Amino acid sequence: MRISTKKKNILKIAAATSMVIFCLASAFAGSIAWFNINSRIDNNANDMSIRVVSDFKSINVYRSTTANVNEYVFSTTPAQTIEIERWDGATPVFRSSVDGGANWSAYSTAPAINMNPDLSIDDQSVPDPFSPLSPYHPLLFVVEYEKVRDASSQAVEIRAQTNSGFLIEGTKSSSGTPVGTATLKQSGNPMSNFIMTYAQGYGSDDDVQFSYTADYLSGSNMQKNSFAKINGNGEAQFDDEMSVFQSTTEQIKKIGVIFEYNFDVIEYIYYKLLGNALLDNVISATCDWSLMI
After folding, report:
1. In sequence order, what are the residues at sequence separation of 6 or more whose Cβ sits closer than 8 angstroms to the Cβ of residue 53?
2. Residue among 138, 144, 142, 2 nearest 73 (CA)
3. What is the number of alpha carbons within 13 Å of residue 243 lying toward its C-beta?
4. pLDDT score of 289 more than 60
5. How far is CA 80 from the centre of its chain?
6. What angle do CA 138, 126, 211 make, to 5 degrees?
7. Fewer Cβ close by (within 10 Å): the C or N end of the chain?
8. Exposure of 117 by Cβ count < 10 A (0-12 exposed, 13-18 middle, 19+ buried)?
9. pTM value?
10. What is the DSSP letter of 90?
11. DSSP 8-state code for residue 118
């Protein structure tokens, strides 16, 4: 969870979540798109769309109250809640509330949720993008089902897929297949290049965890993955599909997923592209993956 503070000019990043547009799928499948990144990167919101199984209940999004090298602690009040209000025939109609409030509105009008909300200093809002001095910006999503899903009968899985390449030329997948190259540009860079996930499942009697030590995050309780990784030779590899969470034995009522910046990969990308004039200016990236639930 460490990133060098000696490299002062590393890419600065900010991110935002945005609207979720839901539609019913006959099996578990879906898409999600919600991050934004920049070099000091502006929070230009991106749509998030998810296809859901029929027993989907809700997603709660939680911001961190503490995020540092030692631990992540999340607020127990959701920054946003999205749930099915009713079914219009075979089509779910969604509603949303913010900050744990009782006032609901159509989800289509829901405001964006920033992954990097501004800091308040002397009553003034100050941007807090990713940087070596402020690298920790986790966001917790809790997916809940109406009823317990028996993974021993049908595997419960969340997978993510992207059609984008990797920003570094010559990169290969974990199987050794050459990966297409994405070109660094002023805007629209693939967010899949920069993120990682932690995930765990919960049964009906389990309380969702809102506090995570560094040891817990790196331990066996959390399933960890990312599209981009640095292998044992110090080289990047990039896969266009990853498992965010999977269970074939548990009784699953909720799944908690933490999205965080992939610090090692961000350093790798930045120093491989060092000298590119675009890195001296604000760049942006958009979420380029689909999430299957």
Report:
1. 25, 27, 28, 145, 293
2. 138
3. 9
4. yes
5. 15
6. 25
7. N
8. middle
9. 0.81
10. T
11. P
Please, are residues 227 and 259 in contact by the beta-carbon 8 Å criterion? Answer: no
Please identify which residue in the block is written with the tokens 């990039």: 238
Rounded to whole angstroms, the Cα distance separating 108 from 117 reads: 21
Residue owning tokens 């006959």: 26
CA atoms within 13 A on the CB side of 265: 24
**Residue 94: both structure tokens together:** 């969604």
User: How far is CA 42 from each of CA 57, 145, 154, 267, rounded to the nearest angstrom?
Assistant: 32, 34, 41, 20
Could you give the residue ranges of the DSSP H alpha helices within the chain?
Answer: 214-218, 263-272
The residues that bridge with 9 in the sheet, in sequence order, are none
Residues 108, 96: contact at Cβ < 8 Å?
Answer: no
Q: What is the pLDDT of residues 181-192, one digit of tens each?
A: 999 887 777 888
Indicate the SS3 state at residue 265: helix
> Which tokens in the block code for residue 1?
């969870």
13/36 Cα distance (integer angstroms): 8
User: CB-based contacts of 219: which residues, under 8 Å, 6+ apart?
Assistant: none
Q: Are 118 and 40 in contact (CB under 8 A)?
A: no
Q: What is the tally of helices (H) and strands (E) in the chain?
A: 2, 24
Three-class DSSP category at 247 = strand
pLDDT in tens, 135-178: 888 989 999 999 999 999 988 988 888 889 999 999 999 999 99
How many angstroms from the chain centroid is the CA of residue 157?
16
| CA R_g for the chain | 19
Residue type, 188: G
Handedness of CA 285, 223, 112, 71 (dihedral sign): negative
